[in-house]
Amino acid sequence: MTRLDQRDLDILRILWREGRITKAALAARINLSPTPCWERLKRLEKAGLIEGYGARISLRALGPHVLVFVAAELDNHRTETFAGFEAAMQEYPEVTGCWALGGGFDYLMQVVTPSIDSYQRLIDGMLAARIGLARYYTYIVTKPVKTSGLPPLDLLASQARQTN
Question: What is the pTM of this model?
Answer without folding.
Answer: 0.81
